[in-house]
Each structure stands twice: as structure tokens, then as C-alpha cells.
Amino acid sequence: MDPPAAKRSRGCPAGPEERDAGAGAVRGRGRPEALLDLSAKRVAESWAFEQVEERFSRVPEPVQKRIVFWSFPRSEREICMYSSLGYQPPEGEHDARVPFTRGLHLLQSGAVDRVLQVGFHLSGNIRELGGPGEPERLYHVSISFDRCKITSVSCGCDNRDLFYCAHVVALSLYRIRHARQVELRLPISETLSQMNRDQLQKFVQYLISAHHTEVLPTAQRLADEILLLGSEINLVHGAPDPTAGAGIEDANCWHLDEEQIQEQVKQLLSNGGYYGASQQLRSMFCKVREMLRMRDSNGARMLILMTEQFLQDPRLALWRQQGAGMTDKCRQLWDELGALWVCVVLSPHCKPEERASWLQLLGKWDKLDVCPLEEGNYSFDGPSLQPTVAISPGPEEEEEEEEAVATGSRHTVFGRALQAGSLHWSDAHLQRILASDSYGPSLTGTISGEKPTFDPQGRPLWLGEPFPTACARVDTLRAHGYPRQALRLAGAIINTLRLQRRHQLESYKQQKKELLQKGNTCITNTEGWVGHPLDPIGCLCRALLEACRLEEETLALYPDSGPEKRKAAYQHVPVPGSPGESYLALALEVALLGLGQQRALPEGLYAQDKVVRSEEQLLALLEEVELDERLVQVLRKQAGLLLEGGPFSGFGEVLFRESVPMHTCARYLFTALLPHDPDLAYRLALRAMRLPVLETAFPAGEPHPNPLDSIMSNRFPRWFILGHLETRQCELASAMLTAAKGDPKWLHAVLGSIQQNIHSPALLFKLAQDACKTATPASAPPDTTLLGIALELGLQVMRMTLNTMTWRRREMVRWLVSCATEIGPQALMNIMQNWYSLFTPVEAATIVAVTGTTHATLSRLQLDAPRREELWACARTLALQCAMKDPQNCALPALTLCEKNHAAFEAAYQIVLDAAAGGLGHAHLFTVARYMEHRGLPLRAYKLATLALAQLSIAFNQDSHPAVNDVLWACSLSHSLGRHELSAIVPLIIRSIHCAPMLSDILRRWTLSAPGLGPLGARRAAKPLGADRAPLCQLLDAAVAAYIATSHSRLTHISPRHYGDFIEFLGQARETFLLAPDGHLQFAQFLENLKQTYKGKKKLMLLVRERFG
């Protein structure tokens, strides 16, 4: 659709015209307008000026002037629409970035001057102050217009944007507000027709002289063509006049910069990863809707331009090539694009040829390989609205339906718009619904046909097409500026839904016993209305709420850009023909009907995420509505119907295992109903706690290995949003627990529901924490019932995670002890006594027993001496049991805890001794032995050290063994105890340690001082022991033998780069050899043996001779 031409050819009228300067004089205030002005207004709105000239052979000049005068747009609404992202009356608050605001400021500051209107052309100058230190800037603006629409604009600022610049806005507003002050001239051709030849020549020459650098070549070319008799210019009657308005055949629409729109969309799509880009594209979609609402043909035009750029997005081909899905932001934009096209194609006032051209374009786009497909398994020919509905198909029929959907044709995002092309508005019943608020059987009798047209109360119904399609009609009427008609159709659809629900309840009551015995049901709605591509519930709710909204006097151009988004205010607006009902109540009813519908979760991550997002958007709308007594009654009635809805309701007694959970909706209902009907609120919320897809994943009585694995092996679509749904379930449970504080009846009911329906340990733990926090406020006594429930949930988490350890277990155990402490000593002792089913031995011994007996815990409990001793005894018993079960990790904590009780300490020590015989490792034995020494029990430390040495083995090359320090400590301990203990440990050292440097180190340490001189021993010898006498002579022999064996071992595979290390090793060996009386001789013999055995290693032997001779 091309923009209207800025000029057209006009004939040169002959003869003078009558002039009547007073014909368009301004009428005084309160006086009726002149008939000339009234007529000129109507003509200026709908007739091209060329049509006026052709219709009447002679149009008086005053009449021409009034037509020209009234042809400029008279409302600022359109100017604002084309210069901002939304409409606001000029007296409201403005955003300085918006061209409309800037233009208004320029107008009010007197920046507009030299305004002249010549025919259908307006021009003027705009003076704008520059920045600091910059001169004033002057912009020349020209505007062409026709039939109250601006058809082209030009400004010296060269500002390229989607919207008119501020200078165009300033000039347009000046013309609207100060129309009488604008100098008005007829089209220039009218002025030229009044000139004689001399005047025309003078006019042309002056014009060329004034602009000779720009127009001289063009003037000469035109003169040459005119002087050529057979030229094309002489064959055309008249001449073009840019001020004469558009021709009859020219399209009449507002100026729209197509190239700039395409460039802007392309740029925004290339920045699609940024939040701002998505927001700006959504603003452009809003602009399309605004144009549609004003019935501006540019709405469809702009949408076509945007769609073409969307389809040229290079990411589409890349995603298709990689087999990857598009980003969520991009997917949402495509959804909005498809929904907008449904509104455009379904337009109730478009011409058939317009709709045909749109459908042709959509058909072409639909066949493109890169065209995105519609997400989810929603059907295109779903069931029509009917007054009666069957409960559900049998399993075989259901499988056939699923197969039919699976094998269906390819559906793109434009599929529903193409389908809308076959819909029409000519149905007689539909026309009567739209035409009257009081349409009933008495007005027209009975409409012929099989389907009923009114409900038993005589209110009109709308049957025969799917519910989403019917709601798309409502959205279309609203989008195209027919709000009253949209409300009438919405009312008929709601009447139909009510009648359908009534029949559903009746059919359920007849089959209720059978369904309850089965315990589950087939799905009654294979596709839901919330999250549907056409968003039927959202369309109805927005249409109804819009009728009830209290509009403020001023609206922001950017509604979301203010520092605080103001909450919408609504009022009850009565429904004509339905006494006692209001559109606000209907909106609430429809939203709850859609949110509470039992429906299958769609396939695919995005479609499932869209269900969640749509629910949240609907509930956000409802939360804006302040509930009065009238709306509370609606809530109570709808909640009751949801509970009784059977398989048609997500709150019904029987559920399909793949149905969408009701947690989010239930939380809203619970919060809203709680102050007015607590019993109903709890019953509804408890019913909604179910998550059947997890319940049926495990046979009854079998443990749940991992709740998140429940979906992987079944034949149903994967639940990508399961984690989100479980979180919402947890939030609902938390809301009930918090609200039920102080009410044991409901607290226990909520606890039972949580234990039955929530399977995620992390979420159960969060619930337990929340309950504990709520139960123990800082400024009030604790709620013992709620504390007990928190503890019970914590115990359940412990049992669930006992065999599947997580990194949060330590946190959970500490919290559980803290919670039990808040309840009292008996709760703390109970978890100690039943630790086997809750904790690992390590957790019980190191966290439960220790934390339960700290000074802070005992102070918190404020126990008397007997009760304190009882708690200590329980903790010691726990520690001993843990030590028996896991001595390796729990023996030392048990000893530590039992220090103050001799009998318990002896029992713990005996457990360690028994464990040593049963394979307790040397590292743990050394640790306990060091503890014993630290506690002043050196003999017991020595005993444990010898048991550890008996298990130890250090090879010849393990001089960095982790037990080296422990061995040296044990040797030091035995030396400090005396000669007897040292003599006993030497054989153990010789048997366990084969590392020569380590043996020589021990030997040297023992020869430095006399045994029994340490702080823990008694003096039993006067001087140090000699290495050549018992018991150290055995250790010396072992060290010498170890050096000899190690030397031979190292020489077997030695490389030249290790020769230096080996020579140093021999030096250490010589020092040990020399401790013996004949050590020098032994070392010489050892070296000679090496020289003979390894004489082939000449370089090494040379180094040996150099060092040792």
C-alpha cells in the first residue's frame, strides 16, 4: 500500500473567481457554526479536493478556503499517536524524550513562526535553543495533508525515527491550536490562474533568481520540453501542484516512514539479547494496536513491515540449521506477532480485497522454511462451545485423538491468522448480539437452526465455534475500537460457559460414584485455555476489566517508566440486561474458570513455561482488583464450584495424572478467601496441594529414590517445569502453615497434606525452616504446635536423605537440633534416642550429641541438675553407640564427650581397643593415642601407639610416609616412659619400618638423652643408652641392614642424574655405620663390595672413591 502522492496534476481554471473574505469568519462562542463550515468539514474529511473540482464546475473561492481550512487534522490525538509510544492529553505529565513532549514545549516557548498554509501544504520555521555555548538553530518544516490526515513531512533536522520529530509536532500543534492565526492561501495553481502572461513571466523569473543555484538546471530542462511541441509534457492536461492535495485515486492514510520502520526493527532484532530491544519491539506492537483501535489503515501496514523484518532475521536460519530452539524473548515476540495478525485478519470492517491481500501475504510467509512453528500441541479445530459436554473419552478414543494431533499438518505462528480468514461477521444471531444490550428471545423469536441461541434465563448464547476463536473475536472487536460490541459478545460467551458448566456438574453427579472408585480420570480438556496461543481467558478478562477501570485524568506516555507504577482502580459497572451483575464480577469469574480448568500440560519447554507465565499474568490482573463484599461472594461461589467440578476442575476430587497443578491459583484464592471464609480457603488449598504426576510414578509403598527421576521413563511428555511447579507447591504449603499458626486443627491438616504430596527434600526443609521461624517470633512466645510441625518436617527430611547424602546435610542436622532445642529437652532426647533412622553415626556423634550438650544449648533449655544429667547421659549413650557402629570416625568424638564420666570413658576406650583388633587403621589409632597423651594418660597412649605400629609398614623408599611424624611421636613417648617401654617398642619398630634414614633418625634421637627423663616419665637411668648395647643394638643392626639393602636396590636402576643423591645417601649410611664399635671396618667392607659388584658403573665408582677413598 503506497503512501498518498504529495502532488497531483490540475487543470488551469480560466476566469476570475469570486472572493468572499467573510465567508469563513469565526463564529462567536455559543453561536451555532455556519452551514458553510459544517458542510466544509464533512467534505474535507471524506472527499479528495480533485473530486470536489470534478463534481462542481465552479467552486467559489470562499468555499475552497473553508474546505482547505478544515482539511488539516483537528485532533491532537493522532499527532500524539505518530510522535510517541502512547497517547496522553497535552496537559498531563510528559517524558522529555518523547517527540510529542518536546514539540509541545517548543510550541509553548514560542519557537514557531512564519507559518503559512498554501492549499494542502503547511510550512513554518522552528527556532530551537542550542546547548551551552551553541547558537540557536533554525529548522524549516513542511507538511502535506489531505482529508484530515498528514500525508508527508519534511524537516531540516533530518532526524530519522519511527515517529514525527519534535519540530513537525510543534508546527502541527500550532496549526491545530492557533488555526485562525495561520495565513491561508488557496493552492498555488489557483493563484497562478489569476495572473496574466507578464505576471507569470515575472513570477517565474523572480523564483528562478531567488533559487537559481538549486532550480536553474531543472527550469531550463522544463522550458526546453515545453517549447518542444511533441514532448510528453505538452501531451498532459494541466500541471502538477504540490499544494492541491491528493487525487481521487490516491490512498488516504497518515504518513508512515516505511524504510525507517524496517531499519528500526532490523536493528532491534539484531540486539534481541537485550531486554530494552524486546521492550521497544513490544512498544511497536502496542503502536499497531493503537492504530487498529483508531481504525487507521497504517496499523496493518506497519505490521506487514515488521513481519517482513522478523522473517529476515538471520537467526531463524541459524536456529533451524542447528536444530536449536529460539530464545524465550524472541519466541514471545513471535507469539505477539501471530496474535496481532489474527486481530488484523478478523477485522469486522475491512474490505474483502484488503483481507485477501493479507491472507495472500500470510500464505506466502507460512510456507517459508524459516517461519517458526507454533509451540505446544494445541489443536486448530478444537471442540466448539456446546451447552452439553461429555465427561471424557475412553482411553482408546483418547489415544486416537493424541495420534491425530501428532500426525497433524505443520502449523506455523501464522496458522491461526490464516484460519481466521475463513471467519465472518455476517451471522444474524451474532449481529444481533453485537447490536443490542437487550437482545433476547422476545425481540426476534426463535432463530432457525439446531443450536440454541438463548439460555433458560433468556440471555443470548454464542455457540458453534471453539472457545479460543470466540474470544479472539472479542479481542478483535476491542482492538479495532468496538468496546461495547466486545462486551456484548463477551457476555454471550460467558452465558454459554455458565450453561456448559451447569451441564458438566450434572453429568459428573451422575457418574461421580464410578469415577471416585477408579480414583483417576481421563482428561476432559486436552488443551487448556490459560497459555493457549490465542489467550482466550486473558482476552475476556482484559475486555471486561477495561470497562470497569477508573481512568485518571492524565495517563503517562510511557506507563511503566515512572518511578512508581500506579495500581489500577476498578469500579463495578452493571451489565445491561442482567440485574445484579457487573463486568468486574464477570472478569473475576472468567479468570477463575480458566485458571481452575483441569487441563493437560502441553508439550515442549516453551509451551509449558508459557502456561506458568500466563497464570501469573492473569493473577497479577486479579491482584489489582480490590475485593469488596460483592466480589468475595463471587470468589466463594466459584471456589465451591471448583471443588465440586469433578474431572472438569483442577480442584475436583479426581485428577488426570498429567493435568496442570493448581498451586498458583490456589494460593491466590487462599489468601483472598482466608479473611472471609477460612474453612473454604483451607479446603480449597489442601485440595490443590496434589501433584499427581509424581504420585503415580512410584508403586504404593515403595521408596522414592529421587523425585526428579519420576518423569523420565513414562510415555507422557517430559515435564520441563517440574522444579518450578514443586516450588509453587511449597509456597502454597508455606502460606497455609503461616496462616494456620495458633490453630492446631488446620496445622495438622496442612502437615498431613505436605507429607503426602511434597517429595522434594530441599523444599520440605525450606518449609520446616519457614515454619520454625514463624513459630518463634522475637517479641512473642513460641507456637509449640507449629514448632512441632517444623520438627516433624525436619525429621522427614532426615529420613529421606539419610542414604542419599547431600552437601546440605550438615546444615539440616544443625537446624534440626536447634529446632528440637526450641521445643524442649524431651524433643532433643527423642532425636538422640532415635538417631539410627535419622543420622549417620558421624552426624550423630559430631553434631547432634555435641551441639545438644553445648553451654549455649544447656543455657537455652534452663534445666535443673537431674534433667541436665539425664540429657548428658542420653548424649553419652548416643556417642558410645556411634563409636561401636563406626569406630573409625566416631571413637574420638565419643571419648571427648565421655571425659567427665569415668564409666562411659572406660567404655569408649574399650571400644577403641576392640576396634583395633578388628582392623581400626593406624592413622585413627595414632590420633586417639595423641588424644590420650593430651588428656594425661601416657600409658594408654603408649598402648594405642603400639597397636598402631603393629599395623604399620613403611618400605625402604617411603621416607616421606604420612605416618612418619606419628612414628617419631610414638618413639618419643616410649623413650619418655622408660627403658622397659622403649625395649618393648624396638621390635615393633624393626618389624614395621624398613626405611634406613628413618631408623637412623630414631636411633639418634634415643641416644641423645637417658630414657625416662621426659615430663611424663620417672628417672630410671643416669646416662643415655649406647647404640652398641641392648636394646638399641638391635635397632642399629636393623638400620645398617636397611642401608645396605636400600643401596643395592637403588643401584639396580640408577641413572647418572641421581649419582649425586646416592653419594649423599652413602654419607648418611657411614654416619650410622660409625655408631657401631667396628663400624669403620663394616663400612669399608660395604664399599668394597659395592665396587666389585658394580664396577661397570665406572663414573659412579669414581665418585665413591673420591668421597670415601
From TrEMBL:
It comes from the Eukaryota. Residues 139-176 form the SWIM-type domain. Transmembrane segments: none annotated. Pfam families: ZSWIM4-8_C (PF21055). Residues 1-29 are annotated as: Disordered. GO terms for molecular function: zinc ion binding. The keyword NAD does not apply. GO terms for cellular component: Cul2-RING ubiquitin ligase complex. Keywords: Metal-binding, Zinc, Zinc-finger. The keyword Zinc-finger applies. PANTHER family: ZINC FINGER SWIM DOMAIN CONTAINING PROTEIN 4, 5, 6, ZINC FINGER SWIM DOMAIN-CONTAINING PROTEIN 4. This is Zinc finger SWIM domain-containing protein 4. It comes from Vulpes vulpes (Red fox). The lineage of its organism: Eukaryota, Metazoa, Chordata, Craniata, Vertebrata.
